[in-house]
Write a structure and sequence with these properties.
- By secondary structure, the chain is mostly helical.
- Helices cover 71% and strands 0% of the residues.
- It is built from five helices and no strands.
- The chain is flat, with a radius of gyration of 36 Å.
């Protein structure tokens, strides 16, 4: 089996940050992340959030749980609305079956057969 295909299916062993083979790559990635955080101001924002969380543990936990339960409530309301819309659509506008459409077209294009004088139908 091809080595690349085997790696793709089975995956590779996760490299350790202390492995000398991957050390330079790890340090370069960490430094790039730090530079990005510093330039965008994320490091200061996270620092302020961490200080707030340490000083007001109960309030911070309440805020986090309120966000989580709020997202859950919005998601549940969207599910209910979607279910109701689907139900209304199927109840108010049922799709006609193909057989009734064919019967209507057939009834419009055919002419009734004339009967013979003895009362039997004629055949086409």
């Amino acid at each position: 089996m091809n080595e690349n295909l085997r790696k793709m299916i089975l995956g590779e062993k996760m490299p350790s940050k202390d492995d000398p083979k991957y050390r330079k790559t790890y340090e370069r990635d960490v430094e790039a992340g730090r530079n990005f955080a510093r330039r965008t101001g994320l490091d200061r924002l996270v620092g302020h959030v961490q200080i707030f969380a340490e000083r007001h543990r109960g309030l911070f936990l309440g805020i986090v749980l309120a966000v989580v339960f709020g997202c859950l409530a919005v998601n549940a309301s969207h599910f209910v609305r979607a279910y109701r819309l689907r139900r209304e659509h199927t109840v108010t506008a049922p799709a006609p079956s193909g057989r009734t459409i064919l019967d209507q077209e057939h009834a419009q294009t055919t002419t009734p057969l004339k009967e013979k004088e003895d009362g039997t139908d004629t055949e086409d």
